[in-house]
Amino acid sequence: MAYPYPNSPQHIGHGRTYTLADVHARFLRMKGYNVLFPMGFHYTGTPILGMAKRVQDGDKELIQNFRELYHVPEDKIKEFVEPVKIADYFHEEIKSGMIEMGYSIDWRREFTTIDPAYQKFIEWQINTLRKKNLIIQGSHPVGWCPKDQNPVSQHDTLGDVEPDFTEYILIKFRHDDYIIPTATLRPETLFGVTNLWVNPDIVYKKIKVDGENWIVSTECAHKLEYLDKKVTYEGEIKGSELCGKKVQIPHRNDSAVMLPASFVESHTGTGIVMSVPAHAPFDYQALQDLKNSNKDTSLAEEIQKIEAISIIETDGYGNVPAKEVIDRLGIKGQNDPRLEEATKEIYGKEFYGGRLKQNTGQFAGKKVTDAKDVVKEWLIKEKFADILLELTNAPVRCRCGAECVVKILNNQWFLNYSDKAWKEKATKCLDEMSVLPQEIRPEFNYVIGWLRERACARQHGLGTKLPWDKDWIVESLSDSVIYMAYYIIVKFVNNNEIRPESLGHEFFDYVFLGQGSSDIASEKTKIPKEKVEHIRKEFSYFYPVDSRHSGRDLVPNHLTFFILNHVAIFPEENWPQEIVVNGSVLMDGKKMSKSMGNIIPLRKAIRDYGADPIRLAIIISAELLQDADFNLESVSGIKHKLESLLGECTKLKPEKPDELEPEDKWIKSKLQSAVSDLTSSIEKMRLREALHNILFSFESDLQWYMKRVNAKQRTNISGILHEINSIRVAMLSPFAPHIAEEMWERLGHSGMVSTSSWPQASEKIDGYAIQSEELLKSIIGDIANILKVTKIAPQKIIIYTADSLKAKAYHFILDKIMSGQTNMGIIMKDLIANKETEEIKKNPDFVQRTIKDILSEPTDLRKIKLEILDFDEKKLIASELSGLVKTDFGVDLQVFSESDPGKYDPKNKSKTARPFKPAILIE
User: Fold this and answer.
1) Would you tell me the crossing angle of helices 560-569 and 420-432 to the nearest 10 degrees?
2) Pair type for strands 135-145 and 457-458
3) Is the dihedral of CA 274, 279, 280, 281 positive or negative?
4) How far is CA 419 from CA 139, 407, 453, in A?
5) How far is Cα 675 from Cα 313, in angstroms, rounded to an integer?
6) Is the pTM of this model over 0.90?
7) Per residue in 455-511, pLDDT tens?
8) Residue 237, Cα to own-chain centre: how many angstroms?
9) Within 13 A of 462's CA, how many CA atoms are on the CB side?
10) Which residues are bridge partners to 409 per DSSP?
11) In the chain, what are the helix, strand and coil shares in percent, each to the nearest 5?
C-alpha cells in the first residue's frame, strides 16, 4: 500500500487505506497464504524542504500546528530547520501509530527513499527507462512553483492538488502597431467574429513578446513569462481607452470594434475576448444589452450596425442558434445564470453535429470535431495565432505558499507517457488485472489516455541524483512507482548482507529481470553467489504485486504510473495483479482540514478510544469508493459492542452438546451462511458489508436463537454458543485484532486467533431448519402486528395451516416461478391441467396471492422450499411455537389444519390459510 510522506503525523483519514490493507492481509494469512505486507517512508520531493524553509522563516501558523495540533516538543521544533529532522520525527510518529493500530507489517523491510541502497535502485530504474527511450529530453509544459523554481505535482501542492492545464489558442488581432491576442478553445469560430470584448475597468499591460508588441492583462503577461517567451514590459493602457478602437481580423480584409464588457475577467486568457454572437449565447446577449443601452452614445451607431455572422450549420438550429436558445429559455440579460445552460447546449450540439458553412473558405463542409485542429494548425502556420497554457484548476499553491503557473521547461528530462506503444502495454495490463471496486476502472483508462510527457527530474528537494546529469534530482513521483520490488532487497540491506555502494545494474538486472547471471552479479557486487541467487528466488516467489492499496486521489498519478512503469520494466509475468482504491474520510460529514479544526491525529484517537473501535468505525462507515463519514459517536457504540462480546466469551465453555434441537440446527446453518457470505464479501473488498454481517446481522440471528432456547427454558447451550462465538471471533480477527486475541483466549483456545485458519463453510446448510425458523419468526411477527393494530388483550390465539391441496399447488407454483414463469394466466392453466392440482381453479385468489408471496421472498429461501417436499407445518407450529406464544403473549396456542373436521373456527378464518402464511385468529 502507499507508503506515507512523513511531514506530519497521520490522522484518522490516513488510517483508512492502511486499515483496509491490513484487514486484507490478515484475512489472506488466515486463508493460508504467505503474505508479504511491508512498509517504507517517502522522504523525497519538496514538501519537507518547503516546511523546513517555513520553520526557518518563523512561519507562525506552521509552528503553531506543530505545537498545538501535533504536540511536537519545543526542542524538536527548533531542529525542524533541517528537512531530514522533520522527516525522521514524523517517520517515528507514523510508525508508532501503525504499530498501535495493529497493522501486521513486516518491519524488517522498512526503508526511506533517501537511503543509499534505495537510491541505487532508483538509478537502475531511471537508467532502464532511458535505455528503452522512454525518458526523453525536450521542452514540455509542467506545473511550476516560481518561488522554489521546481516542477510541482500532487504531493508538492497544498491540498494535494494535481496541476492540470488547458491549451488556449491565442488569435492575433492587430490594432495599429499592437497585437491584441484573444484566447479561445474553439479556433474554428474565428470566422464568426463581429467584435472584441474589453473590460473598461482593467489596466492592461503593453508588453513586447519575442519582438512583437502585445496588449494583455497583467495576469496574462505574468503567465507568458514562463512559456518560453521573452517578455519585456513597455507600459500600460486602460481598458476604457481601447473601447471603440478597431482591430484587423487576421484571416480577412475586415475590421472589428473593441466594445466594453464588465464580464471579461483579467485572470482568464488574455483579459480580452473575441465575440461570436451567432454561436455564443453570452456574446449574443451582451451585444443585445449594449444595443438596448444608451450609455455610450459615441459607440451607439457602431454597435447597432453589428450583425451576427453564422458559420456553423447544425440540424435543429437556424441561422443564429444563440438567439434561438436565448429566446426559448426566456433569457433577458447577460447576468442570467441560464446562459451557461444555453452555452453547453449549443457547443455540445455544434461540436458533435455541426459543419462549417461556405463563408469559412477552405474549411467549408468540415465537421466541427475535425475542424478545430486543422484550423489551429493553419492559424499557427500563417502566424495568425500563438499558444497560451494556463492551469485549469487554478489557483494551485505550492507547499511553500507560492501560486503555481504553467511553465515550458527546456532541456528537461521527461517520462514519455505519450508513447503509443507504452500506453497500449499499460492498457493490456489494466484489462487483465483486477480493479476494486470495478466502477473505478474507467478512470484508469481515462488517465492512460490523456497522460502526456511528465517531468521526471527537478533541481531542488530530497532525492536521487539523475545518474547521467547530477544537476538534476529524480522527481518524487518518478521514484515511487515500482518501489514494491525493493521490499525484497531491503531486508538484506537492513541485515548488512548487502552494501549499498556495491549495487549496480548487473545485480538489479539479475534479481528483478532474470537477465545476466548470478556469477556476474556476484562478481560486481562482492555478494556471495548463493546469496544473490537466494534474493532472486525470494523475488520470484513473491512477485508480482498481488494487491496494491491506495486512495482515489492517486489514480491520476501514483497508481497509473505504477502500471506504466511496471509494464515498461518488468516481464509480463511480473505485471501487477490488482489495485484496490478507496475514498477519503470525512469528519461528521465535513472534509478534514486544519482550518476547520476537525483533524484528529491517529495516535490521539487510539489513546482516547482504542485501536480496534477506530479500525471498525473507519470500515463500517462506507464501502470502498464512498467517502467514509467518521464520527466519534459510532466509535463509542462499537467499543460497547466489543466489550459486550468479550463479556459473552468469558462465560462460555467448550461443552459437547446433547442431541441438536431444531433451533440449534438452524443457528449452525445460519453461521455456515454467514461464513460463506463474509468470505465472499472480504474477497471482493466489500469490508463494510462483511463487518456489518458479523457484528450486527448475525447478532439478530443470535437474538432469535436465545429467544427460542429461553422459551424452552434450556440450559444446555454453552457448547453451541462456544462453537458459534469461536467462529465469529475468528472472522472478527482481521478487523479487530487486539480484542479478538483476548476473546480467543477467554474462550479457552491456545495459540493466537490471527494465526488460526479462516473458518470454512463446510457443513451442509439444513434447509428444513432454515425453513422452519423463518416460518416461526414470520408467525410471531404477524401476531405482534395484529395485536399492535387491534390493541386487544388476547385470551386465545389459534393458528390454521393450509390443506394438502394448497400445499401441492404451492409447490407447483414455486417450481414454475423458479424456472422463470411468473405469468398468472399461464400458471393457472398449468395448475388446472395437472390432476393433483386442478381443483385449485375454484380459488384463483389463492394462486394470485401465492405468486406474490413467493416473489417477495429471497431466492435462497425459495430454493430451500423447492427441495423440501414433506414439510408438516401443523406439527412444527404445534411443537415449536407454543412456548414462544406463551412467553411473548401470555396465552396458550391452538393449532388446526383447515381440513380438520372438528376445528374451532367461528369466523371461518381457516379458508384464508396459505402454505407458509397460516391464518391467525385472536380472541
Assistant:
1) 110
2) unpaired
3) positive
4) 16, 22, 9
5) 63
6) no
7) 898 877 889 999 998 888 998 888 999 999 999 999 999 999 999 999 999 999 999
8) 49
9) 27
10) 140
11) 50, 15, 35
